[in-house]
Design a protein that fits this description.
By secondary structure, the protein is an alpha+beta fold. The protein contains 13 helices and 10 strands. 37% of the residues lie in helices and 23% in strands. β8 and β9 (270-275) form a beta hairpin.
Length: 373
C-alpha cells in the first residue's frame, strides 16, 4: 500500500495519494512523510512543516530524516512569502557606512585565543621544523609533523598573552602563522542573506531576514568585497550497521552536505553569509550570467548552488576565494569545549548541534581579521 502512495505522489495524483493515506496507520513514519508531501503540494505549508519537524525529532533512520530535511528545505526555499515593501521602507539602515577597515580591539590578556599554522612548501619544512621546535620546545621530528603542506592547521588554544607571544616568535622566524582571540569574532556583523534582489556590474542588493526582528535590504558595491570564503558543512544521521562480529550497532554517518559562502565587507565590518537552507532560490533575481545562463530555479539545491557560485565567479573574478575549510575543520572539530561557546550564525536543519558550524565561523573570522592586520 505504501508503494501505491509513493507511485501516486510520483505521478502527481495527490488526491489518490491522500485517499490511500487515510487507510493507513497515521503514526507510521512513512505515512507521516507522504502525508507531509501531499500537504506540501496542496499548499498546506504549516501542517507539512509540523510533520517534517516531528519526523526529525525521532530517529526513524537516515532515509526518513533526509526526506524530511529536504521537505523543510523546499518549504524554506519555495514557499516562503515574499517580503513586503513596507518592511523595506521602515527598516533601519542594515549596514554601517563605508569607512576605514575595523581594527582589532585590545583583548584581555586571559581571553581565549587560537594559534593557527599556515601551509608552507615541503622544501621549506626542514628549516622551518627546526625553528618551530626551538620556539615551541618540542622535538624536531614532531615539529615537522605539525607543519601543514595544504590548508590551515589548528595548533593550540590558550590565553591571549601566551598565544600572541608564540605567534610573534614564530612569525619572526619566518613560519607562516595567524592568531586571534575568539572575542574578535563578536566584533564583526554577520548577515544571513535570503536572496539577491538586484544586481548591476557595480554592485548588488540583497534581502536579509534570517535572525532579524524585521527584514531589510542591503546594498553594496562589488568593490567592497575583499574575500570570499566557501565550504561544505556535513549533515550527520544515526544509521544502523553491522560490526565485525555481525552485531547491529548505531553509528553516525555523513548523509548530506550544506553549501555555505561568506562575502567579507571589511569597510562595513560585515560578513554577508549565504548558505543552503536559508538562501531562497525561488525569490529575487535570476542568477543568470552571460557565462552561465539560467531561466528558472533548478530542481535540486546542488544545481541551484552551482548557479550561485557561477554568479559570484562572474561578478567577483579577482576576489581571493578561500576553499580549504574542510582541511582546517578536520584539525579542530574535536575541540568541543573551544568551539561550542562560539555563536555560529548558521541555522541548519540538524538533529543536534555540530561543531562544524562554529568551525566555519571561526575559519571565516580568521580570514577576515588576518587580511586586515
Amino acid at each position: 500500500m505504501i508503494k501505491s502512495v509513493a507511485d501516486a505522489i510520483a505521478r502527481g495524483d495527490y488526491l489518490a495519494a491522500a485517499q490511500l493515506l487515510q487507510t493507513l496507520p497515521a503514526h507510521d513514519p512513512w505515512v507521516m512523510l507522504y502525508t507531509a508531501q501531499v500537504q506540501e503540494r496542496s499548499e498546506e505549508f504549516e501542517q507539512a512543516e509540523t510533520l517534517y519537524r516531528q519526523l526529525l525529532k525521532t530517529d526513524y533512520g537516515p532515509k526518513i530524516a533526509t526526506e524530511a530535511r529536504r521537505g523543510l528545505q523546499r518549504l524554506s526555499e519555495q514557499h516562503k512569502p515574499a517580503p513586503t515593501l513596507v518592511a523595506v521602507s521602515t527598516a533601519p539602515p542594515p549596514l554601517p557606512s563605508t569607512g576605514p577597515a575595523p581594527t582589532l580591539s585590545a583583548p584581555d590578556s586571559n581571553a581565549t585565543s587560537v594559534l593557527i599554522l599556515e601551509p608552507l612548501p615541503n622544501a621549506a619544512k626542514p628549516e622551518a621544523a627546526r625553528k618551530f621546535a626551538q620556539v615551541m620546545n618540542i622535538e624536531t621530528y614532531a615539529a615537522r609533523l605539525f607543519l601543514p603542506s595544504r590548508g590551515w592547521r589548528f595548533y593550540r588554544a590558550g590565553r591571549w598573552s601566551e598565544i600572541a607571544q608564540y605567534g610573534q616568535q614564530l612569525s619572526a622566524q619566518g613560519i607562516p602563522v595567524c592568531w586571534l582571540p575568539l572575542e574578535a569574532l563578536q566584533q564583526v556583523q554577520v548577515l544571513e542573506v535570503s536572496y539577491f534582489q538586484s544586481v548591476t556590474p557595480e554592485g548588488a542588493t540583497v534581502w536579509v531576514e534570517q535572525g532579524q526582528a524585521q527584514p531589510f535590504s542591503c546594498k553594496f558595491a562589488w568593490a567592497e568585497v575583499t574575500q570570499r570564503v566557501s565550504g561544505l558543512l556535513p549533515i550527520f544521521e544515526q544509521v544502523v550497521a553491522r560490526d565485525k562480529q555481525g552485531k547491529f550497532q548505531r553509528k553516525e554517518e555523513i548523509q548530506d552536505h550544506a553549501q555555505i559562502c561568506d562575502l567579507h565587507l571589511p569597510g562595513r565590518n560585515t560578513i554577508l553569509r549565504l548558505y543552503r537552507g536559508v538562501y531562497q532560490f525561488n525569490q529575487g533575481i535570476s542568477l543568470s550570467t552571460p557565462k552561465a545562463p539560467q531561466t528558472l530555479p533548478e530542481e535540486t539545491s546542488w544545481a541551484n548552488w552551482k548557479h550561485l557560485e557561477a554568479f559570484l565567479d562572474y561578478y567577483l573574478p579577482t576576489v581571493p576565494h578561500w576553499t580549504d575549510f574542510t582541511l582546517f575543520a578536520e584539525t579542530i572539530v574535536d575541540q568541543t569545549d573551544l568551539l561550542s561557546p562560539i555563536p555560529a550564525h548558521i541555522d541548519l536543519f540538524r538533529r543536534e548541534e555540530s561543531c562544524w558550524d562554529p568551525a566555519f565561523h571561526l575559519y571565516s573570522g580568521l580570514i577576515f581579521w588576518k587580511n586586515l592586520n
